[in-house]
Write a structure and sequence with these properties.
49% of the residues lie in helices and 14% in strands. It is an alpha/beta fold and 346 residues long.
Length: 346
């Protein structure tokens, strides 16, 4: 595998997202919507591993905002330490691009023992154990990936957020619009991917220590971004909630630290912007990621997106950053050395 494999996966994301949106049929969600409205579920449990699990974060927040008792917990913790969360009145919603990783299989065994009221899956493999076990399976409609999650991650973000809106009986047209505009924004951005790589090289260079911070739905990109930088570039990166960063890790600020601050939705934009300026004042190499940089001199270019499309756009500059950092390390971006596409061992 050469670096073009990972790059081509990144560049193919807008087309894969449009395909998923065109093929998605949410009519089968209606019985679950009625059951939720009638109080038949005591809780909703969103789960997954790695990027698939992080992709569920915005959907979890949207369920909480709608007033539903929702839990976001990874499969490993759910099957080992939080199994009592699953009751016979629960809706379990599992996202996994492969549908067959080790933690997924363990959770499927647990669900056979204690079946929930409903079980929804989002996966890229219709013949996977997950797809076969679920009461309803929604396909990611992404071409098979050989390396770090790209298309499957974006499509997981898109579909999971649409499922929430369908469960809440909302008009889906505005949300489809947000996602199609995000696909257009990502496509426009990636049309100049080599130029953006040069920008990243000039601004970030080879950082000593790298940190990603954000709040709310941006946490999906923060956590996935740190994951894929480690996975694709073998470069250690830390992803933290911006508020948690203030509770201790702020002491790392200074010239040896590089921080990427995600602006996120307008609700907490001012808080994140204040943190950015504070870090710059401490001599930290801090950079702003937002479709509306509003004159921030330290802003990194990113795709235009809004609404539920914003979490999708936020990850794309980090994907290119992982390519840049891999090159800095003298490695093939996205090439697995010690693991593989599907994690088969807990």
């Amino acid at each position: 595998m050469d670096e073009n494999t990972y790059l081509q996966d990144i560049l193919s994301q807008p087309a894969a997202l449009r395909t998923a949106l065109d093929r998605l049929d949410l009519d089968p969600i209606q019985p679950y919507t009625r059951a939720l409205r009638n109080g038949e579920y005591d809780r909703l449990i969103l789960t997954g591993m790695g990027a698939s699990g992080y992709a569920a974060y915005p959907a979890w927040l949207q369920l909480l905002e709608a007033g539903f008792p929702a839990f976001w917990v990874d499969c490993a913790e759910l099957s080992h330490y939080a199994r009592r969360l699953i009751t016979r009145r629960s809706l379990v919603w599992l996202i996994s691009q492969s549908g067959r990783s080790a933690e997924i299989l363990r959770l499927l065994d647990l669900i056979q023992t204690t079946p929930p009221a409903a079980f929804i899956a989002i996966t890229n493999d219709l013949i996977s154990p997950l797809a076969q076990a679920a009461g309803l399976t929604l396909l990611l409609e992404a071409a098979v990936e050989e390396t770090v999650s790209t298309r499957t991650y974006l499509n997981s973000l898109a579909i999971s957020q649409l499922v929430v809106r369908a469960l809440c009986s909302e008009d889906l047209d505005p949300y489809y619009y947000d996602l199609r505009k995000a696909a257009d924004g990502i496509a426009s951005y990636l049309a100049n991917w080599d130029g953006h790589l040069l920008t990243l090289e000039g601004l970030i260079g080879k950082p000593q220590h790298l940190l990603l911070v954000g709040r709310g739905p941006s946490m999906s990109a923060v956590l996935t971004g740190a994951l894929i930088i480690g996975e694709a570039a073998k470069f250690p990166a830390l992803g933290l909630n911006a508020a948690q960063f203030r509770h201790g890790p702020l002491e790392m600020a200074g010239s040896q630290l590089t921080v990427l601050v995600f602006g996120g939705p307008h609700e907490t934009d001012a808080l994140n912007r204040h943190l950015l300026h504070e870090l710059l004042g401490f001599g930290t190499a801090a950079f702003w990621l937002s479709p509306s940089p509003q004159g921030e001199l330290s802003a990194l270019p990113m795709p235009q997106a809004s609404g539920i499309g914003l979490p999708l756009a936020e990850i794309v500059p980090i994907q290119l950053l992982s390519v840049h950092l891999a090159r800095q390390m003298g490695l093939v971006p996205g090439k697995f050395l010690y693991s593989g596409k599907v994690t088969l061992t807990e």
